Amino acid sequence: MTDTAPTAIPMSGQVTLNDGRVELAPGTPPPSGPYANEDLLPVPAAKRTWTTYNFSALWVGMAHNTASWTLASGLIAVGMDWKQAVFTIALANLIVLVPMLLTGHAGPKYGIPFPVFARASFGVRGANLPAVVRALVACGWFGIQTWIGGEAIYFLAGKLIGDSWSNAAHIGGYAWTMWLSFAIFWVIQVAIIYRGMETIRRFENWAAPFVLVGAFVMLWWMSDKAGGVGRLFDQPSRLGWGGGFWKLFWPSLMGMIGFWSTLSLNIPDFTRYGRSQRAQTWGQALGLPTTMTLFAFLSVLVTSGSQAVYGRPVWDPVQLAAKTDNVVGLLYALVTVLVATLSVNIAANLVSPAFDFSNVAPRKVSFRTGALITAVLAVLIFPWKLYSDPQGYIFTWLGLVGGLLGTVAGILVADYWLLRRTRLDLADLYRAGGRYWYAGGWNWRAVVAFLVGGVLAVGGASFEPLIDGRPVPALSPLADYGWAVGLGTSLVLYLALTLASGGHRRAV
C-alpha cells in the first residue's frame, strides 16, 4: 500500500444534511471488519440529540468537582492570593476552550468518537498511539478522583460509626477502612457506567445544580467561621505581583490548562451526540470558562477562610469539611463531594478511555470492557501518591499531562482544520487500504510530530515526586510552558512534514 492515497477520491456511502452534518447514506451497510464495532460506529443524525443545556450541564457537572476545587485551593496553598488564583484559572480555561471547540467540531458533524477521529491524522492503526496515551492519563485521573470519593465515604462513615472506623488498623499508611471506602466508590462508578451513555446524561443534568448549591453552602459556613466574608478577601499573597508571582504563574497556567487538556482531545466522545454545531459550541462556551471561574472563586475564598480560621490553608475540601462539629452540615458537604466526584469521574475519566481501549481491539473490547480496564489500571497507578501533595499534583502530574496531550491536539487541529478543511470520509475511517491507511495503517508524519513535540514539552520537566531529576536537563527552560510548546511544535512540524512529503494531496 502506498504511503499517500491518490488525489480526488470521491467520498462514497455518506450524505451531507442541510445543517452540515454528515451521516452514512440510507441503505448503506455500516462499516465492519477488524476496525469497527457498535460503540465506535458513527451516531446516526437522528440520534444526535444533545442540546446546549445538555452540554452546559455536562460541563457544570465536570467543572464543579473536588479536583477542580483543589486546583484553585492548591494555588492558595503554594502562595497566591484569591485574585491571583482566580485570574490564573480563568485565563487557562479561556485558552483551553479554543482547542476544545476545534476538536469538538468533528463530533456533531460526523458522529464519531475521538479514537476514530484520530485515525484521519495518525492512521487507522496509528490512532491507537494517541488513544492509549489519552486512556492512560484518564486512568490516572480516574484513580485520583476515586481516591477523593473514597475519602469522603471514609469520613462520612467515621462520623456515623465512630472511632472504631476512623481509627482502624493501618495498612500501607492508611486505615483499612479507607481502603474499603476506596473500593466501595470504585464499584459504584463501574455500576453506573455499565448502564450506558443515556444514564450518564441524566445523571449530569441533576448533579450539576446540586453540586453548585453545595459549594455555596461551604462558602457560607466558612465565612461564618471566619467572622464575615471580608476575612476571606483580606488574606495576603505570599508572592506579591513581582517576580515571585510570575515565576509561579507560568507553570501554574500550564497546569490549569493541563487539567482539561484531556477533554480537549476526546470531547468528540460527547459532541458526537450533539444536535448541532451550535449546541456544542454554545454549550461548551457557556459551560466551561464561566463555571470553572465561578467554582475557582468559591474554592479560593473558602480556602482563604480556612487560612484565617485555622492558621494555614486547608486545600482538600474533604479534610476541611471533616473539621465541622455539625453532623448535618458534614453529611451534606460529604454527600456533595460524592456526587461531584461521581459526576466528573464517570463523564471525563471513564467514558473516553472506554472508547480508547475499545479502539485498540474493536472486535474483542467493547465500551463496557474498556471501562473495566480503565477502572483496574486506575488502581495500579497508586493515585494516593499523586494526590498527596499539591506541589507534585499541580506542577508534576498536570504539567506532564498537559505537555503530552497538547502535542496530540496540535496534530489533530492541523490535520482536520488546516489540511482537510473539516472534510472526512466516514467509511475510510474504518477500512484497511483506504485514504487513512497510509503505510501499514500508520502515518509516520504524525508519529514524528508527536515524539518531537512530546520531548520538547516534557523532556526538561521535573518528574518529582515520581522520579528524581529531569530526563533532558537542557530543555528545562521549556518546562514551564509544556502545553503551549507541545501544541505549537507538533502543529507546525506536522504541517511541514506533510507538505514537504506531498502528503497533503491525500487531504479530502
Explained architecture:
The chain has helices spanning 52-63, 66-77, 82-104, 106-110, 114-117, 119-122, 128-161, 163-166, 176-193, 197-226, 230-233, 243-266, 268-271, 277-310, 317-321, 327-349, 351-360, 367-380, 383-386, 390-419, 444-458, 482-500; strands spanning 14-16, 22-24, 170-171, 174-175. The protein is an all-alpha fold and 508 residues long. The longest helix has 34 residues, at 128-161.
Name some characteristics of this structure.
508 residues, 22 helices, 65% helix
Task: Write a short abstract of this structure.
This protein has 22 helices and four strands.
Spell the H/E element sequence.
EEHHHHHHHHEEHHHHHHHHHHHHHH
Please give the radius of gyration in angstroms.
23 Å
Task: Please tell me what the overall shape is.
Answer: globular
The overall pLDDT average reads 82
Detail the poorly predicted runs.
1-9
Percentage of β-strand residues: under 5%
Strand order of the largest sheet: 1-2
Determine the fraction of residues in helical runs and give it as a percent range: 55-70%
> What is the overall number of helices?
22
Q: By helix and strand content, what is the structural category?
A: mainly alpha
How many β strands by DSSP? 4
Largest sheet properties: 2 strands, antiparallel
- For the record, give the distance between the C-alpha atoms at the N and C termini, rounded to a whole number: 18 Å
GO molecular function: nucleobase transmembrane transporter activity
Membrane topology: Multi-pass membrane protein
Organism: Streptomyces actinomycinicus
Transmembrane segments: 57-78, 85-106, 174-194, 206-223, 243-265, 286-310, 330-355, 367-387, 393-419, 440-461, 481-500
